[in-house]
Amino acid sequence: MSPDLIITEVCKFYEITASQLRSMETRRWIHARWVCWYLLYNFCDMSGREIAQLFDCTHKAIWKGIREVGYRIGGDPAIDLALRHIKAALDAHELARLQRRIEQILGGQL
Q1: What is the predicted pLDDT for the residue at 103?
Q2: How far apart are CA 80 and CA 74, in angstroms?
Q3: Are 81 and 72 contacting, i.e. CB atoms less than 8 angstroms apart?
Q4: How confident is the model at residue 58 (pLDDT cuts 50, 70, 90)?
Q5: DSSP letters along 6-56, please?
Q6: Distance, first Cα to last Cα, the chain
Q7: d(C-alpha 73, C-alpha 78), whole Å
Q8: Which residue, 14, 22, 76, 99, could crosslink 32 as a Cys pair with Cβ 3.0–4.6 Å?
Q9: Is the pLDDT of residue 109 over 80?
Q10: What digits encode the pLDDT tens for the residues 10-57?
Q11: Is 108 exposed, middle or buried (0-12, 13-18, 19+ CB in 10 A)?
Q12: What is the helix, strand, coil percentage profile of the chain, to 5?
């Protein structure tokens, strides 16, 4: 799974642009950033430093966001809803990618 795909799906869910997501000037989209960082860490195996470079912030901020999402899972309906919907969208992308790969292998016989 690519970081770009995760960023795209987070932006779709929160109805913001990638620039807004990456903007550290406002707390308005803080939950969107935290969810994105959590997903990048857990689905792309990115380190806190790699995510920090992508978002032009400190790795301490990244770890705070990742921990916040972890703490809130199961207790914050907004975070749970975001994760559920974004993970479903990412799963759909992965399934489509695998179906295309199978068709390539089998020569389009599906």
Answers
A1: 84
A2: 6
A3: no
A4: very high
A5: HHHHHHHHHT--HHHHH--S-STTHHHHHHHHHHHHHHS---HHHHHHHHT
A6: 24
A7: 9
A8: 14
A9: no
A10: 999 999 999 999 987 777 899 999 999 999 999 998 999 999 999 999
A11: exposed
A12: 75, 0, 25
Q: pLDDT-based confidence at 108, cuts 50/70/90?
A: low
- The tally of domains found in the chain comes to 1
Q: What angle do CA 45, 5, 61 make, to 5 degrees?
A: 55
Q: Which CATH number do you get for residue 16?
A: 1.10.1750.10
Q: Is the dihedral of CA 91, 93, 99, 102 positive or negative?
A: negative
Domain range enclosing 77: 3-106
Contacts of 68 (CB under 8 A, 6+ apart): 34
Evaluate whether 44 touches 6 at the Cβ level (below 8 Å): yes
Comparing C-alpha atoms, which of 18, 71, 7, 12 is closest to residue 40?
7
Query: How much is the pLDDT for 27?
Result: 77
CA dihedral 60→63→64→70, nearest 10 degrees, is: 180
